[in-house]
Amino acid sequence: NDGKFRQAYQINGKIALEGNFQNGFKQGPWLFYDPDGKLKIVKYFEKGIEKTPPADQQKEIDRLIEQKAGIQ
Asked: In the chain, what is the greatest distance between 2 CA atoms, to the nearest angstrom?
């Protein structure tokens, strides 16, 4: 699996989670939404392992949160 991934809630079709795979592993920020489509949490992965993001990635994650919060 490589590339973007999205999964939706079956009950209403709203996005449940989205992120990227690289060489079959979760990579970079993954965004998790509640059933109403509101962003709840962002987790960062390197080669499938959840980690604290480096400072430059944290800035990108902060921008994603601002963009996505309440938009779904």
From this structure: 37
The residue to which tokens 């509101």 are assigned: 38
Q: How far apart are CA 9 and CA 63, in angstroms?
A: 25
**In which residue are the tokens 């590339």 written?**
3
- Give the Cα separation of 29 and 10 in Å (integer): 23
Residue-wise pLDDT tens digits, 16-36: 999 999 999 999 999 999 999
Q: For residue 26, count other CB atoms closer than 10 A to its CB.
A: 20
Q: Is 25:47 a contact under the CB 8 Å cutoff?
A: yes
What is the pTM for the complete model shown?
0.86
Alpha helices in the chain (DSSP H): 55-68
Torsion of CA 54, 52, 49, 42, to 10 degrees: -100
